[in-house]
Amino acid sequence: MHISDGILEPGWILFWFLISAVFIALGLRIINKRIKEEPSYLPRISLIGAVVFVISVWHIPVPMTGSSSHPVGTPLAAIVVGPLAMVVISSIALFFQAFVAHGGLTTLGANTFSMSIVGGFSGYLVYRLFKNISPLWFSTGMAGFAGSIMTYLATALQLALSLNPGNVIFYWKLYSLGFIPTQLPLAVAEFAFTGYVIEYISRTKAEVIDTGRNIDSFTWTAFALMILIAAVIVAGAYMGHISGKKMAGTDGTVEAYAAPGSVSDSIGARLMKRLGEPLGFALVGITGGLVTGFYWNRWRKN
Amino acid sequence: MPEWLSGDPLNGLVMTVAFFISLIIGRYLKEHMDNLKNRGNIIDPGIRLILVFLLIIAITVMEHWYFLALITILCIIIAYKIRLFQDYIKYMIFPLAMALFILAIQGLFYSTNAIGPGTIPPGFFRLDYGFLIFSRIFASASVFIILLLTTSENELLGSLRRLRFPATILEITSFMSRYIRTFSNEGNKIRFAQESRMGLSGSFFKKMQDTAMICGLLITRTFERSEEINRAMVSRGWKPGIRYSQETPELHMSEVFVFILLISGLLGIVFIDRSI
Predict the structure, then answer these.
(1) DSSP string, A112-164
(2) ipTM over 0.95
(3) What is the pLDDT along chain A (302 residues), one digit of tens a residue?
(4) Do B169 and A46 touch (CB under 8 A)?
(5) Could you give the C-alpha distances from B95 to A104, A153, A171, B12, B177, in angstroms and in order?
(6) Helices A136-163 and A74-81 sit at what angle, rounded to 10 degrees?
(7) Is B73 helix (H, G, I), strand (E, B) or coil?
(8) Which of A16, A61, B143, B199 makes an SS bond possible with A109, Cβ 3.0 to 4.6 Å?
């Protein structure tokens, strides 16, 4: 589901653009590197992007409902070209989709985040997890299913964050429930579609499928830790929510225990007040991650 | 002396000065638009893109539905005048579905904290927030659709070059824009051929297998075709990292003037909307 223009608040428009820009920059770096090594990669990735766009606007049959709808297509693209390169081509595909009024101009960042980053990466992760323990059709099918479901959960979260900042969890559930009647059957269709397409490609031209050898163990460990910690935070918040707690969040709990009664007037606190907490925390996370990653090898050697 | 003349002159002065300055600007704008119409372009596509972006941002901060309705009506009039009203309606279907979904969620569940039977009545009183979002989506979509109807893909791609987008993105975008139609036609041809051989019918899994076969075929074909394209590019002197001329048509002062004028108008509408 593409978010149309006019829904998101300007702060969130900027936030999703920033997050997506980081992933697009990383994807561009990989693409430029590959083009230098192998010049034919430029037309190849562009043509795959064009095909993925064409496929994503095609109607595929949806089970149970008897109707047809568009597949997300990003898990399929991630398996074929790799997840980071996929973010670049699918963000361009989203730009073209805006020309047929699917999505919008100001929501390009938000749609890139939900469909390419969340949908594509989660699909690819599921594919890699199941790859060695199940048949190819199942691992790729599950990638399509997970990518589709995660896309809609991310879209629902984006809507709840922007439209109902005072009651995010409740509205996240509500939007997700609203999407279920149409999107659950579509996720089943995406399962069959992705599984069959990759199965066909593996029979006719197996070398096309991205083997993912360029992702090292450091990256995988970082991804696994990210998902684990995020899952613990989400599960904790959900349990707190259903037991009727105040939802102060991890930072509120830390403040209450570590520095009770303190009033901070530092630059960081003032910036946070000005930017809004999610943007402030994202900035802190990006800075911390970049510095740690930059000096990681040097610290390890010492 | 009559009282209306001897009283406080401020309002009269403001109105007179504003009227005559606007008169001069209006006449100048008409002349400018006529000149540019002869050149085939009223406002540079890059400026149009930025303006539409800013206008949509302005719409998302507006708080009164009647200003949004005014923008929508203006867009409908433009679509009607340029004889593209049917296309406007066609493009509006998807944003309308999204707007109705949000109207339903916001209107029916506002201020409730539980999902289940009995939650609808209390939230029903906040239909106004849902309606505001609905109006924002409608107005933004209308503005964007007018941009799409009046600007070609090539013009927008050219404007991205002017806005200094990374060269690799522009190259991929140009290729995609060129080959989307080719692959779409190719896919449709294969689909028709399959249908004529009793394909794409029967159970869900059979239909899905046939659809996936077409998609897989298209993907594998891209690899052979990209090799041919690469050979053609290399034979014409292309190599990785080559940069084409960055020369872009110069921006006229009159275009800058129109841009400033429209931005001022935009800020004015937002100011009035927020101060009511």
Answers:
(1) IIIIIIIIIHHHHHHHHHHHTTS-HHHHHHHHHHHHHHHHHHHHHHHHHHHH-
(2) no
(3) 788 888 899 999 999 999 999 999 999 999 999 888 888 888 889 988 888 888 877 777 766 656 667 788 899 999 988 899 999 999 999 988 888 778 888 999 999 999 999 999 999 999 988 888 888 889 999 999 999 999 999 999 999 899 888 778 888 888 888 888 878 888 888 898 899 988 888 888 777 776 555 556 777 788 788 888 888 877 777 777 677 666 555 566 666 676 676 666 666 666 666 666 666 677 778 888 888 887 887 777 76
(4) no
(5) 9, 19, 20, 45, 23
(6) 130
(7) helix
(8) A16
Asked whether B130 and A174 are in contact (CB, 8 A), the reply is: no
Taking the C-alpha atoms of residue A63 and residue A183, their distance in angstroms, rounded to an integer, is 11
Residues ≥6 apart with Cβ < 8 Å to A242: none
Rounded-to-integer distance, Cα B197 and Cα B202, Å: 13
Q: Tell me the C-alpha to C-alpha distance, in Å, between residue A277 and each of A110, A156, A265, A271, A282.
A: 18, 20, 15, 9, 8
In chain B, residues 81-140 whose CB comes closer than 8 Å to chain A: 91-95, 98-99, 101-102, 104-106, 109, 112-113, 115, 133, 136-140
DSSP 8-state code for residue B251: P
Flag if B102 and A7 touch (Cβ within 8 Å): yes
Contact B95 A163 (CB under 8 A): no
Q: What part of B 170-229 touches A (C-beta under 8 Å)?
A: 171-173, 175-180, 182-184, 187, 204-205, 207-209, 211-213, 215-220, 222-223, 225-227, 229
Task: Give the mutation candidate from A16, A51, A173 for the B interface (greatest B CB count, under 10 A).
Answer: A51
Interatomic CA distance for residues A230 and A256, integer angstroms: 22
The amino acid at A262:
S
Place of tokens 């339903």: B104
Residues A247 and A238: their CA atoms lie apart, in Å, by 9
**Radius of gyration, alpha carbons of chain B:** 26
CB contact under 8 A, B207 and A35: no
Residues linked to residue A69 through DSSP beta bridges, in sequence order: A60
B99: chain A residues, CB-CB within 8 Å: 4
Q: Which of B105, B113, B143 sits opposite A175 (nearest CB)?
A: B105
Residues of A in contact with B53 (CB under 8 A): 105-106
Distance CA A119, CA B158 (A): 30
Helix axes A83-97, A10-37, angle to 10 degrees: 120
Roughly how many angstroms between the first and final C-alpha of chain A, as a whole number? 49
